[in-house]
Design brief:
- The chain is of the alpha+beta class and 165 residues long.
- The chain has helices spanning 3-18, 50-67, 90-95, 152-159; strands spanning 21-29, 35-42, 75-79, 100-109, 112-122, 126-131, 134-139, 143-148.
- It folds into two domains: 3-79, RimP-like superfamily, N-terminal (GMP Synthetase, Chain A, domain 3, 2-Layer Sandwich); 90-159, Roll (SH3 type barrels).
- It has four helices and eight strands.
- The chain has a five-stranded antiparallel β-sheet with strand order 7-6-5-4-8. A three-stranded mixed β-sheet has the order 1-2-3, with helices on one face.
- The longest helix is centred in the middle third of the chain and has 18 residues, at 50-67.
- It is globular and about 50 Å long.
- The mean pLDDT is 91.
C-alpha cells in the first residue's frame, strides 16, 4: 500500500466503522481523474445493499470534502467485497480458513511468487496454505495481493450464510 492510500485509509476508517461497517480496503487508481475505491462490509456479515453503499459514500464524501486529502478531482466508488473477495488482514485468512485462495507474494517464497491453495490457518505474521506440493507458510507482510477463489464450495457456503459477501 502506498503512502497516499495509507493516509486515506486512516482518514476513512473511523467514519466507516462509526457507521457499523468494517473497512476492507482502500485503493486509488488512475492518474488523470483518479478513482478512490472503498470496499466495506457489514459488521453483522449480512450482504451489503445499495443503501449501505450510499450511506458510506455520503459520509465519506462529507469527510473528504472537509479534509481534502486528494488535490485533484476524483471519483469515489463504494462497494462490497463480493464472494471472491480480496484477503487483506490476518483476520481475513482466519475467517476464510478451509477455502481456496490465490496469493501473490512480493518476493519469491520457495522459488515462486504465485500460489493457489486451501487456507489452513494464519496468525498475525504467517499464512499457511495447502498447495499441490504440500504445505507452505507465507509471511503475511510479504503478500502483495490475495483473494478467495470462486469455487462451488465457497458458493454453497455463501448461500448457506456461512460466508458472507
Amino acid at each position: 500500500m502506498d503512502q497516499r492510500q495509507a493516509t486515506l485509509e486512516t482518514l476513512i476508517q473511523p467514519t466507516v466503522e462509526g457507521l457499523g461497517y468494517d473497512l476492507v480496503r482502500v485503493v486509488v487508481s488512475g492518474r488523470q481523474r483518479p478513482t478512490l475505491q472503498v470496499m466495506a462490509e457489514r459488521r453483522d456479515r449480512k450482504p451489503m445493499t445499495v443503501e449501505d453503499c450510499e450511506t458510506i459514500s455520503r459520509a465519506i464524501s462529507a469527510k473528504l470534502d472537509v479534509e481534502d486529502p486528494l488535490p485533484e478531482a476524483y471519483t469515489l466508488e463504494v462497494s462490497s467485497p463480493g464472494i471472491d473477495r480480496p484477503l487483506v488482514r490476518p483476520a481475513d485468512y482466519v475467517r476464510f480458513a478451509g477455502h481456496v485462495a490465490k496469493v501473490e507474494s512480493r518476493e519469491p517464497v520457495a522459488g515462486q511468487r504465485r500460489f493457489t491453495g486451501r487456507i489452513l490457518g494464519a496468525d498475525d505474521t504467517t499464512l499457511r496454505l495447502a498447495i499441490e506440493t504440500g504445505e507452505i507458510e507465507l509471511p503475511i507482510a510479504a503478500i502483495a495481493r490475495a483473494k478467495l477463489v470462486l469455487t462451488d464450495e465457497l458458493l454453497r457456503a455463501a448461500q448457506a450464510g456461512h460466508v458472507t459477501h
